[in-house]
Predict the structure.
Amino acid sequence: MSNFVITIARGYGSGGRTVGKMLAERLNISYHDKDLINLASEESGIHVSLFGKVDEQPPSRIFRKKNIYRGELFHPESDEFVSEDNLFNYQAKIIKDIASNSSCVIVGRCADYILKDYPNLIRLFIYADLETCIKNVVDMYSISPEEARKRIKKIDKERSSYYRYHTGHDWNNAYNYDLCLNTSRMDFETCVEIILSYIRIKLGNINAG
């Protein structure tokens, strides 16, 4: 079959990144997350630190209107070349290029919206209840439960604002996705098996290890 792409939006602490890596390994396809920042920097010539500052972050100007992504890029001569909007646009271009060239898993960064017209697209939302997320974050970073709670609420709020600014949609709305899975109620391996079964149903036979 032709290339297919799995996008994963995830609540902080839900294990969405872990699920993505496991899927990529099982399917023997590439996995993309923070490497998108470096690739966008190489493509544009804009310093990687600028991409890092706005990665999955809401716009710096609080009262700024939404800028729904439409695929445009500002040229180096433009005053908007290193704007937050253009940094997003270059990262989106990288996401499209990767999806066009090979099957892959892409985590976050509004990839589900950027690739919404892509024919073989599986859009996932991975979430968990707050207590599960707190436990996962405490175990991962060795911080207190209260600090984990604050971090989860802060990062999820940032991801939600970032998604709404660039897509006009609510980040945690099930209508945006093909499959939503609660990792509070299953281990990651079970989650992966459910996703693989769904992919086979939607796309037919795949090489899934």
In short: The first strand starts at residue 5 and ends at 10. The two ends are 16 Å apart (CA to CA). The chain is about 50% helix and 10% strand. The chain has one domain: 5-203.
